[in-house]
Design goal:
This protein is α+β, with helices and mostly antiparallel strands. Helices cover 25% and strands 29% of the residues. The strands form 3 sheets. Strands 2-3-4-7-8 form a 5-stranded antiparallel β-sheet, sandwiched between helices. Strands 1-9-10 form a 3-stranded antiparallel β-sheet, with no helix packed on it. The protein has a two-stranded antiparallel ribbon with strand order 5-6.
Length: 188
């Protein structure tokens, strides 16, 4: 297993719709194992293949539910159905999220309260998960990555302007920038 560099906003793979997985082989298995290791080292609660430069519809997740149960897995070629996204301003304390591709930043974003995720796992067994709360938020965030959307692309005007300024000030928003979990220095 290998910890892989995480692409920072501006890399074209982060802003392109990912391709369906058609080959279930050792290469895909290795990718998934690397994704788990990278997510764990970052640390994160989810990681989509485009975030490590691979344009495939795959994401991993790791979430400890409120009841203490661990929710960890991979979904390949996911389909996501969500409830209606509430109208109104996002709450800074209860609806803020971050992203490994916009490292160190957090902004509030309204998300649907529930989500149904389907797809397959590495053995091509069906995956069907009904999630609510933060677990549903994780699925929505990672699924967006597969659609070429970062959460900062969906922010309300006030926060979108702040995010754009931070991205500009940090020299992000261009191809070739990444960071390696376990190291402080950005590459590129």
């Amino acid at each position: 297993m290998t910890i892989r560099p995480i692409c920072i906003t501006g890399n074209p793979v982060l802003h392109t719709k990912a391709l369906e997985v058609t080959e279930f082989n050792e290469e895909l298995s290795q990718l998934v194992q690397d994704m788990y290791e990278t997510m764990d080292e970052a640390p994160g609660v989810g990681l989509a293949a485009p975030q490590i430069g691979v344009n495939l519809r795959v994401f991993v997740y790791d979430w400890d539910a409120e009841d203490g149960s661990a929710q960890r897995g991979v979904v390949i070629n996911p389909v996501l159905t969500i409830s209606e996204v509430p109208v109104g301003e996002a709450d800074w304390e209860s609806e803020s999220e971050g992203c490994l591709s916009v490292p160190g930043e957090r902004f509030p974003l309204r998300r649907a309260e529930t989500a149904v995720l389907t797809g397959v796992d590495l053995d091509q067994n069906p995956v069907h998960i009904e999630a609510s709360g933060w677990f549903a938020r994780i699925f929505q965030h990672e699924f967006d990555h597969l659609e070429g959307i970062l959460y900062v692309d969906k922010l309300e005007d006030e926060y979108a302007a702040e995010a754009k300024e931070i991205i500009k000030d940090r020299g992000w928003g261009k191809d070739g920038l990444s960071w390696l979990p376990g190291e402080e220095k950005l590459e590129g």
